[in-house]
Specification:
The protein is an alpha+beta fold. 45% of the residues lie in helices and 16% in strands. A 4-stranded antiparallel beta sheet has the order 9-4-11-10. β6 and β7 form a beta hairpin. It is globular and about 70 Å long.
């Protein structure tokens, strides 16, 4: 998973553990241990990030109480620059990341109930923490990409890098696979859709007549649990941060006392209330309801896919043809069902980078084999779908060669150059940023010595 590797923990693990972290710290006496610009780093933040890193299996090469505050400080440098440069992350991206993180936790711990017990929080509280942390992590990542994303690498540089590597330092390339997919979205009965709309019209009526506040209804009924805990409020966002269907209606609202018409999006059905407009940014609250899929409709969708899979095995038509004409996945059907890897911009995945439901199926498959139908949660919109997959190719793990693994080696060289740019930027940013470190936290061999200016 390519994410500026030297900064991986900064944008992944710490964004899970920082801020109002999942781990309870009720007995910790808090204090400000660092100040970076006008942002404080609290002792509780450091401890929460340490616990999160332990949960993730990270091993520190040094004192975590030196390493973590510095990484948090670097994170704040990126966030400050992102604010200056108006870097924005869309709500759809945040929701997708939260869904991924939630699913990863559930898979690791065993169930949603065990997840709540482990963190001593409700699912909605966990999602709220993850929502803020996902936005922070994505913003930092987006800022890094802006600073270092336009790096160019020549074939000569890649060959020189590989030629100069000692034999025992040649990178090991893990097993990689290419996977094609066909999905079927179960049919949702008209009665279910009409019932969802009826409930939303009822909420609108209750707000309009003054019987209930929109925010109260959002807390009680909205299925966007991340915003429901805040009365449905999303916070100030630009048009590009909102899904188009939502933005088109929200930006046309004028009266905060009124409720929008019902808006359909890939996530379900919404009603929206304006809170405030500031220039090209808007703060709204919403209630989201999702039509439910009946068990028999999910079974019917899977039965259709099992029939399609059998016809492919009998050579009635190819998987590629079926994906193009029968798949409901608009993101892959125009590419013969081939799954794109968003981290590498290729179609190759390491097994841990595949959606977990797909990885479990693919692990035991042979190249060219078509799976039986299975259910999975679509990471883009959180909806349950039925799917079949074909294992298009597998390259077993091996030591890299310039002929077979040029792209992987190119990525390594590019990452090294990107990290060099980011490190240079951090050193320069330090010179112009106010930093104060408490006396008991100063005796560290920092990676970036410019924190201590006196």
């Amino acid at each position: 998973m390519r994410k500026f590797l030297n900064f991986r923990w900064l944008v992944i693990a710490l964004c899970i553990g920082s801020g109002s972290a999942l781990f309870g710290q009720d007995n910790v006496i808090d204090e400000v241990v660092w100040v970076v610009g006008d942002e404080a780093i609290l002792k509780s933040e450091v401890e929460e990030a340490r616990l999160s890193a332990l949960y993730e299996g990270r091993r520190f090469n040094g004192d975590p109480y030196c390493i973590i505050p510095e990484e948090l400080a670097v994170q704040k440098l990126f966030l400050h620059q992102a604010a200056l440069d108006s870097i924005e992350v869309s709500e759809a991206e945040v929701i997708q990341r939260v869904d991924q993180m939630t699913e990863q936790y559930i898979q690791a711990i065993g169930s949603r109930e065990k997840l709540e017990e482990y963190f001593n929080k409700t699912s909605s509280q966990i999602r709220e923490v993850l929502r803020e942390n996902a936005r922070t992590g994505l913003t930092v990542q987006r800022m890094q990409q802006k600073l270092a994303g336009e790096v160019k690498v020549t074939p000569a540089e890649v060959r020189r890098y590989f030629k100069d590597l000692p034999q025992d330092s040649i990178p090991y390339i893990p097993t990689q696979v290419e996977v094609q997919i066909i999905t079927q979205q179960p049919r949702i009965p008209i009665d279910e859709i009409e019932d969802v709309k009826r409930r939303l019209r009822e909420y609108t009526e209750r707000v309009t007549t003054g019987e209930a506040d929109f925010s109260t209804l959002a807390r009680l009924y909205s299925e966007d649990r991340g915003s429901a805990t805040k009365g449905g409020e999303l916070g100030f966002m630009g048009r590009g941060q909102l899904i188009p269907e939502y933005a088109n209606v929200a930006f046309n609202l004028q009266d905060p006392a009124k409720v929008s018409k019902i808006v359909e999006s890939e996530y379900g059905f919404h009603i929206i209330q304006l809170i405030e407009k500031r220039g090209d940014r808007i703060n709204t609250r919403h209630i989201l309801l999702k039509p439910k899929v009946a068990d028999e409709d999910m079974l019917a969708a899977c039965a259709r896919l099992d029939s399609i899979a059998e016809q492919i095995r009998l050579n009635d038509f190819t998987f590629e043809e079926a994906a193009t004409f029968l798949s409901h996945d608009k993101h892959t059907r125009n590419n013969h069902g081939l799954l794109p890897n968003p981290y590498t911009n290729t179609s190759r995945f390491e097994m841990q980078d595949l959606p977990q439901e797909i990885a479990k199926i693919v692990e035991g498959m042979n190249v060219g084999e078509v799976s039986k139908a299975f259910t999975m949660v679509n990471e883009r919109d959180g909806k349950e779908v039925c799917a079949i997959v074909k294992l298009k190719s597998r390259i077993n793990g091996h030591k890299a060669t310039i002929s077979d693994d040029y792209q992987s080696l190119k990525d390594i060289v590019m990452e090294k150059k990107q990290d060099e740019i980011l490190e240079k930027w951090i050193l320069e940013k330090q010179k112009h940023t106010y930093v104060r470190i408490n006396e008991g936290w100063r005796g560290c061999a920092f990676r970036y010595p410019g924190w201590l200016k006196d």
